[in-house]
Design a protein that fits this description.
By secondary structure, the chain is of the alpha/beta class. The chain folds into two domains: 166 residues, Rossmann fold; 70 residues. It contains nine helices and nine strands. A six-stranded mixed β-sheet has the order 5-6-7-3-8-9, sandwiched between helices. A three-stranded antiparallel β-sheet has the order 2-1-4, covered by helices on one side. α3 crosses α4. The relative contact order is 0.20. The structure holds adenosine-5'-triphosphate. The site of adenosine-5'-triphosphate has 12 residues, from β2 and α1.
Length: 246
């Protein structure tokens, strides 16, 4: 992969309220340029909402900025598993065209994209299934295609929302290889992930989120039994502290 210059991503006192729910409160964190930065937290913690806020899909309070080292580059996004109706007449190729070019998918690939799309599908092991309907793929195969669309055009910032969720062992290995390539190329990666072992091994930095930031730092320093208990415990932190003191 050619060298790119990923931006820093800055959240400053970001808050988000949806309906009556305060989904995010006082979230401040900085994703360093070219780093792999993981966000971990329990179900309903606000991780996907944080991603959607970054993508400009939700009205937030506070400051959110992308600090590019030069001219703004491409931002890629790999969503959490998408559902497709089994009868939907959209093949893998149609989906790749729809996601990666302005030209309507039914007119075929834009010439500039042909080689990149082939290479991306090859990299995720889906080159042999380009004419399959999206709705006929297994969950893991669909996830591989979602990863492939995030590769085209080459991003400088990549936002991944649980990209490993449906992947089997081989798929997880493909993902790890991609991550290593992005790291080497200087891509900034913001990565929402449930697999703490993978985060500990592969991320440069990790933020523990449960509506607000509970911890933030290098995995080796912040992923301790106590911080994880605090993050994933369904009981209020105050109650745990009181029990510990008793
Ligand atoms: N449009 C909405 N209106 C009201 N509440 C919402 C809306 N969207 C999300 N929420 C709530 O915001 C909270 C955070 O949801 P979010 O999907 O960001 O969590 P998450 O950390 O990504 O969870 P998971 O790990 O289960 O994917 C949840 O309680 C959810 O019900």
């Amino acid at each position: 992969m050619t060298r790119v210059h990923g931006p820093a991503v800055v959240f400053e006192r970001v808050a988000l309220t949806l309906g009556r729910t305060q989904v995010l409160r006082d979230v401040s964190l900085r994703v360093a340029p070219g780093s792999v930065h993981a966000i971990v937290g329990p179900n309903g913690a606000g991780k996907s909402s944080l991603v959607k806020t970054l993508l400009g899909q939700t009205p937030h309070q506070g400051r959110l900025a992308l600090e590019w080292p030069g001219a703004p580059g491409v931002m890629g996004y790999v969503p959490q598993a998408l559902a497709f109706d089994a009868g939907l007449p959209m093949t893998v190729d149609d989906f790749m065209a729809a996601m990666t070019q302005r030209k309507p998918a039914f007119l075929g690939f834009a010439r500039a994209r042909v080689a990149e799309i082939s290479a991306a599908l090859e990299r995720v092991g889906m080159a042999g299934k380009r004419q399959r309907r999206m709705g006929a793929l297994s969950g893991g195969e669909r996830q591989r295609v979602l990863l492939a669309q995030g590769l085209v055009p080459t991003p400088a910032l990549l936002v991944l929302d649980e990209p490993m969720a449906a992947l089997d062992e081989a798929g997880a290995q493909v993902f790890e290889q991609l991550l290593a390539g992005w790291k080497q190329a200087g891509v900034t990666v913001l990565w929402v992930e449930h697999d703490l072992e993978a985060v500990g091994r592969l991320a440069d930095h990790v933020t523990g989120l449960n509506r607000g930031v509970l911890f933030d730092g290098p995995p080796r320093e912040v992923l301790t039994p106590q911080t994880l208990l605090d993050l994933f415990s369904t009981r209020p932190r105050g109650a745990l502290a009181q029990e510990a003191a008793a």
